[in-house]
Design goal:
- The chain has two domains: 132 residues, HUPs (Rossmann fold, 3-Layer(aba) Sandwich), CATH 3.40.50.620; 119 residues, Rossmann fold, CATH 3.40.50.
- Helix content is 33%, strand content 22%.
- The protein is an alpha/beta fold and 273 residues long.
- Strands 3-2-1-4-5-10-9-6-7-8 form a ten-stranded mixed sheet, sandwiched between helices.
- It is built from eight helices and ten strands.
- The chain is elongated.
Length: 273
């Protein structure tokens, strides 16, 4: 069950593309939405040469306005303003709040917290404890979050994605496709048996469940499978399956290439130094 959603924002259009999805998930689960704005370096939408005090005042005003708008829509919300290194401050805030989900964009305005894949977002996935729903800066803003593709690799690690799909079933997900990529066509039968078992765990959740298998490199076949879905859910590491979160890995490739938001569930014992 999702009880608290953490949503970093820096006031830029790019970072706030993730907010509608964070609002939707929080509202569907009657969860609290915690907005966090981190002032990292001078450069918040303030006039050139503005003092630190003016930058912080403008950031606070923006957060108060956003908080009021979201509350008016019926979502429980709380806004927090932090100052310091973006990744460190967000990780500290995540540890303090213990959210069930983090929803963030991959890039924000240069000057405040720059949420760039490979820096802040990467550290939230590597070092944080909560799943991270990532919205690319180039993705058109959307509020649709009904149909998810859940990537499974047959391992216990990968099934963390299935557990999260169960948590979101009906709130707001309406349909889920359980997907597995295999390297050899002869593995299709075993993969189907595995997916049928996984689908059984979603019975009674109120979500329509389908299964799909494709043969080939999981990075490329997932691009095909993701078409028509609003969200892709996967674990960042699976034993004998998905690589660790690093440049060139399956998870990294999918986040960079897919237009859809990607929800990464980090394996608990997959500590990466």
């Amino acid at each position: 069950m999702i009880q608290k959603v953490l949503a970093p924002s820096d006031g830029s259009e790019e970072s706030e593309k993730a907010l509608p999805l964070a609002e939707q998930i929080a509202r569907a689960n009657d969860a609290e939405l915690v907005l966090v704005c981190v002032i990292d370096n001078p450069g918040f939408p303030a006039r050139p040469g503005a003092t630190d005090e003016a930058i912080e005042k403008e950031a606070a005003a923006h957060m108060a306005e956003t908080e009021a708008r979201i509350r008016a829509g019926g979502t429980r919300v709380r806004a927090i303003l932090e100052r310091g290194p973006a990744a460190a401050m967000l990780l500290d805030r995540e540890a303090a709040e213990a959210p069930d989900l983090v929803v963030m964009a991959t890039h924000g305005r240069s000057g405040l917290a720059r949420f760039a894949l490979g820096s802040v977002t990467d550290r939230m996935v590597r070092e944080g404890s909560a799943p991270v729903l990532i919205v690319r800066r180039s993705t058109p803003a959307s509020t649709r979050l009904e149909n998810a593709l859940v990537m499974l690799d047959g391992s216990g690690f990968g099934e963390g994605a299935l557990a999260l799909a169960r948590s979101l079933a009906g709130a707001p997900l309406r349909a889920v496709t359980l997907f597995r990529a295999v390297a050899d066509p002869r593995d299709r039968s075993a993969a189907q048996t595995y997916l049928d078992g996984a689908a059984g765990s979603l019975k009674g959740s109120g979500v329509e469940t389908r299964t799909a298998i494709d043969v080939g490199d999981p990075r490329f076949v997932t691009e095909r499978a993701a078409k028509g879905h609003d969200l892709v859910i996967l674990a960042t590491h699976g034993r004998g399956g998905f690589d660790r979160w690093r440049h060139g890995s399956v998870a990294d490739y999918i986040v960079r290439q897919l237009e859809q938001p990607v929800l990464l569930v980090r394996a608990r014992d997959d500590r990466v130094s």
